[in-house]
Amino acid sequence: MPIEIHRLNPYFGADITGIDVSNGINDEAFEMIREGFNEYGLISIRGQDLSVENQVKFSHQFGEVQIHVMNQYLINGHPEIYYLSNLDEGGNPNGKHPDKGTMHWHTDGSWRDRPGLATIMVAEMIPKEGGETHFYCTEAAFAALDKDTKDKVQSLRVIHNLNFSRNRRHGEQPMTEAQKKEAPPVSHPMVRTHPVTGRKSLFLGDHAECVEGMDYVSGRQLIEGLNAQMFRPEFVYAHKYRAGDIIAWDNRRTLHKSTPYDVATERRVMRRTTILGDPPV
pLDDT tens, 164-181? Predict the structure, then answer.
């Protein structure tokens, strides 16, 4: 089949057909995928049979792969894989959501000095209802802000903190002291410039805790206000998975979140890898 690209949203996202990455791809084919990724910010490749080993190899073609500090989610022998499953040892639903933080708008790894460049998600098992991933174009969101708001936020810096987002979303302390020490809060610009598109976007999301140089309460109010102000439904693409889907998205220009599903009766198993980017500018 010829390779075809179909837009998923007027602002970002494309579905690529006519290509099989299950058994690895050569450099020429990968460059075509990279070009699509850079142009559209999100690519979907359906109907694949990508093994854990080949997911790791495919991810390394994008760049250095993150080893997540939350090592309870990692696969033995393949620490690059962040494994999201609600199944028990017998393969049955255990009634627990594996990561409640994923259900709130965020960008992967913003709590690191080098946040995520790309994230690659592979769908192993999907529920009949729910368990989608919604994506949001932060470049379009920034462009839609009024001039006064743009001028206000251009020079601000924000503290991103994994422990902050984990604590408030899980209702418990999911991080050990060693993990918290390994992932201290970091400072990033509130507005970042994409190194490929040159367009600006708001760099916020659920890991963004407070604003440098501003008292804590005022900073929280500003962040929450901007998070609410920038969301417009036309900037959202909702992906309903089919088993075998591969989604790769650009964390430098999108936010994402998963939707709820019945964790007591439905099975959902996803494998995620995140490729490290450069410090935002």
Answer: 998 888 777 779 999 999
